[in-house]
Amino acid sequence: MSQFTRSNSRAFLAIAAVLGMILASGSAALAATPNKQAPRDQAHYQVWLTQEVRHRLVMLPWLTLFDNLQYRVDGTTVTLSGQVVRPTLKADAGRTVKSIEGVTKVVNDIQVLPPSSMDDQIRRAEYRAIYGFAGLWKYAMGALPPVHIVVANGRVTLEGVVDSEADKNVIGLRAKTVPNVFSVTNNLQVASQDK
């Protein structure tokens, strides 16, 4: 019985040693991985900063397809604009962009949409009309769909990028079928076919 316990102890120590080596090599690999730091020359920095701002905004936890965040990078100044449903999203966007390496100033011109139960109903109805249509299902894939539905006081604005002019037109027509909508502005852009 004691020999069985001794062999189990040896097996346990061997497994622990192997796990220790794996963890140590993983830690060394993580330590060797460079941080995603800003490039030092100005031209590369502008490209990097533009990509980093976009990445940080898209990763905001409360960003939905009913919000429209836009930005402009001028040197080390980032100007935020667009419309959001939640006031906290405006503050979070400004805070996250300000934390990016090298950003010296953030101009937060994001508009917070007025709370309205009627606008909330329109948002849900627009979502169903657009993303529930069989030909447009492909745009519903992913964590943040590419077509954003901005509703303010019964007026709908469509923002984002679609694959074709036909899709843009179908989405605009579907948006107009929703009751209680005063107007629909279709600002959708067609993705470049030159890829």
Structure summarized in a few sentences:
The chain is of the alpha/beta class. The protein is built from 5 helices and 8 strands, in the order ααββαββαββαββ.
Describe this structure as you would to a colleague:
- Helix content is 45%, strand content 21%.
- It is α/β, with parallel strands linked by helices and 195 residues long.
- Strands 1, 2, 3 and 4 form a four-stranded mixed sheet that branches. Strands 5, 6, 7 and 8 form a four-stranded mixed sheet that branches.
- It is globular and about 50 Å long.
How large is the radius of gyration? Answer: 25 Å
Poorly predicted runs are 11-35
> What fraction, in percent, of the residue positions are helical?
40-55%
Strand tally is: 8
Q: Can you write the helix and strand succession as a string?
A: HHEEHEEHEEHEE
The shape is globular
Main sheet overview: 4 strands, mixed
Distance between the termini: 70 Å
Task: Kindly name the structural category.
Answer: alpha/beta
Number of helices: 5
Average of per-residue pLDDT values: 83
Strand content: 15-25%
Which helices and strands occur, and which strands form pairs?
Layout: H1 2-32, H2 42-58, E1 68-74, E2 77-84, H3 87-98, E3 105-108, E4 111-112, H4 117-131, E5 147-152, E6 155-162, H5 165-176, E7 183-186, E8 189-190
Parallel strand pairs: 2-3, 2-4, 6-7, 6-8
Antiparallel strand pairs: 1-2, 5-6
